[in-house]
Design brief:
The complex is a heterodimer. Chain A is mainly α. Chain A has five helices and no strands. The two termini of chain A are about 15 Å apart. By secondary structure, chain B is mainly alpha-helical. The chains are: A mainly alpha, B mainly alpha. The interface between A and B is medium-sized, with 17 and 12 residues.
Chain lengths: ~70, ~170
């Protein structure tokens, strides 16, 4: 399942995938895989991404109901 | 394999090991390789790549044993052993490259591309030279390790180039 909330939050901060990847210490492809829903990150990486984007875990990683 | 050949083989391995160690240390000192770590997704991808490579090696050994039992070997023993290693390395490297897990997140693939190209061309040069001089058949068995090593590195090179082209199209 695609993570459009992450993509939107990153775009909202005007960050490229590479910039976000550098900020959280992973490869650009890992950010790309998370956004595409190809990879489920660990809680550690989720928190790092949330901190980099100024969002909460709920806002970025909690699935929408219904 | 006679004593002279065995000595030559060991010397070759030692020279390659020393050259690789010196080059790796120089590159590490300059900060072009060895920076950072593999990220969590890359570590998982590399684990899968190792599994595939291990399975490939087992299958290769089984096939090799069947051919050997039927007394229809194609390669000398030295080449047979190295070929199995090269095949499994090719699977590991190919799988890692196509899952973005071969280079560390902060590493520059350009340096590796130069090293891989150099090793590939060197081995292909030696291999083709031996082929042209007709030195590749020993006791009716094929014996040209350099050609396989060169081919492996060429495959790695092609994988990296193709993956980079795909990545550029995907970027953001």
């Amino acid at each position: 399942m695609k993570n459009l909330k992450l993509k939107a939050a990153r775009a909202g901060k005007d960050l490229s995938q590479q910039q976000l990847a550098d900020a959280v210490g992973v490869s650009r492809q890992t950010i790309n895989a998370i956004e595409k829903g190809d990879y489920n990150p660990t809680i550690k990486l989720c928190i790092a991404i949330c901190q980099a984007l100024g969002k909460t875990l709920d806002e970025l990683f909690w699935p929408e109901e219904g | 394999m006679n004593t002279a050949m065995a000595l030559g083989f060991v010397t070759g391995i030692l020279v390659v090991a020393i050259v690789c160690t010196v080059m790796a240390k120089m590159a590490k000192k300059k900060g072009v390789i060895g920076k950072g770590e593999y990220d969590e997704r890359q570590q998982i991808a590399r684990g899968k790549a190792f599994t595939c490579a291990y399975a490939t090696l087992l299958v290769y050994l089984a096939v090799w044993m069947v051919f050997r039992t039927m007394e229809i070997p194609f390669f000398t023993e030295g080449v047979s052993v190295i070929l199995g290693a090269l095949l499994s390395i090719a699977v590991f490297v190919g799988h890692s490259i196509f899952h973005d897990a071969y280079f560390k997140a902060s590493e520059s693939p350009r340096t590796w591309l130069i090293i891989i190209s150099g090793v590939s061309l060197l081995n292909l040069g030696i291999g083709v030279g031996r082929l042209l001089r007709g030195e590749t058949i020993a006791d009716r068995l094929y014996n040209n390790m350099n050609l396989f090593v060169g081919a492996l590195f060429m495959i790695v090179l092609v994988c990296v180039v193709v993956k980079r082209a795909v990545d550029r199209r995907e970027e953001d």
